[in-house]
Amino acid sequence: MHFLYILTLTDHYNGPANWDDTTNATLGSHWNYLVDLHKKGVTQLVGRTSYSPGHKDLIGLAVFTAENQEQAAEIMNNDPCVKEGVMTAVLHPFNLSLIEGKMPEG
């Protein structure tokens, strides 16, 4: 099954003045977590909008596979930015329909 989680900075981290070395280290861990999931074939798409912190439309997203909703929630909640409160995340079941390089059947 596919799932999507959408990440949003918490209010505290929408202001660049609140970022410090710990925040930057958490972001590095977040990136490494997503890269590891990608290497394992769990994620199909990871990205973010190209806005700066503080912009109302700044979000990140990950489309990934999991066996069920519980496993998907575990993957999302283990994201370091979620665990450390830098970002909030919302999980959605997701139908992955068209992927570059793969034509739909039928």
Brief rundown of the structure:
The chain is α+β, with helices and mostly antiparallel strands and 106 residues long. It is built from three helices and four strands; from the N terminus they run E-H-E-E-H-H-E.
Structure overview:
By secondary structure, the protein is an alpha+beta fold. The chain has a single domain (2-52, 64-93), classed as Alpha-Beta Plaits (2-Layer Sandwich), CATH 3.30.70. It has three helices and four strands. The chain has helices at residues 21-39, 69-77, 80-83, and strands at residues 2-9, 43-48, 60-65, 87-93. A four-stranded antiparallel sheet has the order 2-3-1-4. It is globular. The two termini are 21 Å apart. The model has no long low-confidence stretch (mean pLDDT 92).
Strands ordered across the widest β-sheet: 2-3-1-4
**Bulk shape:** globular
- Tell me how many strands there are: 4
Classified in CATH, the superfamily is Dimeric alpha+beta barrel
Overall radius of gyration? 15 Å
CATH architecture: 2-Layer Sandwich
| Percentage of residues in helical conformation | 25-40%
**What portion of residues belong to β-strands?**
25-35%
> What name does CATH use for the topology?
Alpha-Beta Plaits
Number of domains: 1
Number of helices: 3
Structural class: alpha+beta
Q: Please give the largest β-sheet.
A: 4 strands, antiparallel
**What is the element string, with H for helices and E for strands?**
EHEEHHE
Let me know the average pLDDT: 92
CA(first)-CA(last) distance: 21 Å
CATH class: Alpha Beta
| Poorly predicted segments | none
